[in-house]
Specification:
2 domains, Rossmann fold, binds beta-D-glucopyranose, disordered N terminus, 12 helices, elongated
Amino acid sequence: MKKKLVSMILATAMVAATLVGCGNNGSSQTTAPAAEAPAADAEAPAADAEAPAAEAPAAGGGKVGVAMPTKDLQRWNQDGANMQKELEAAGYEVDLQYASNDIQTQVSQIENMINSGCQVLVIASIEGDSLGTVLEQAKEKNIPVIAYDRLIMNSDAVSYYATFDNYMVGTKQGEYIRDHLDLDNADGPFNIELTTGDPGDNNARFFFGGAMDVLQPYIDSGKLVVKSGQTEFEAVATANWSTETAQARMDSIVSANYADGTQLHACLCSNDSTALGVANSLEANYTGEWPIITGQDCDIASVKNMIAGKQSMSIFKDTRTLASKVVEMVDAIMKGGDAPVNDTKSYDNGTGIIPSYLCEPVFADINNYKELLIDSGYYTEADLQ
Ligand code: BGC
């Protein structure tokens, strides 16, 4: 699939831009503080080159460091591959590193990027709060930092943020549940359970916050009932966005609340890896009618589940679109200018507002996935079989 993505990037860029726009669509929340660290579980090699660091970006070529959190999730592989391909096509040298979800590994990789002459850093952090110290070195060397997808917290070295509108991801998930249960007209009550992501990932609070802004009024009125009683962010968070952790938590919820055949109508899941865990648990433990399950990323396993009726929707964040935008931002910076942004109010990383470029997410479900995912060249039919 990587090969296909690579070959289709140029051909599909315009189609993708029409499907998932990067419009001016500011989200409406301010940033919540990030919390504890996800578990560290693996080793990854650090970059090894030794070369003088750049003092300022130069026009025409140059080296860009791209730090990604993990290869474990499909999306980060696509993000990294798309960015590398596009940056190289634009004439830049790329140092692309994956950190196996290990914070210290990511810190060393970034340190090596700084010391090996990278002139701009693009970083999808593992934990938003853990990069302040290493990024001081980037700041000292005037190396601009673009936070990729996840905001880097409490560091004034962050120059820009590029992401899909995280709050809107959450509202779209909440609206999907609201509309498909017809909460404004149906009598209910309906049972719902909630699952979100890693507490150290600032995005998780935006996803959950956006969804709860839609759903909370129905919980308050009693039309939606959370039988487990777990509604607070900390209670529904999933360390490392782990499928197994989400599955184990759902096992307990089902056995305590739904084992007697009580109907579960909806499961809010903030992304596909947690949605998979919830679906696995229900398949093993639940006998009632299958609930609505939300997700995010349109990972292949989840799109297959969607086709099989085991996941209702997923948010489609076309990684080609975000990668192209970030390449534009890098290029503008390298040429001595300002990067394009479309939001200067939503994302405060604790040191002030970070100028951001927010791309607009869309939802995919059984009715539109072919148009969004196959016709646009994101996947082939064969990928989804
Ligand atoms: C990303 C999601 C992804 C999750 C787990 C979030 O920061 O925005 O797209 O599913 O991390 O990797």
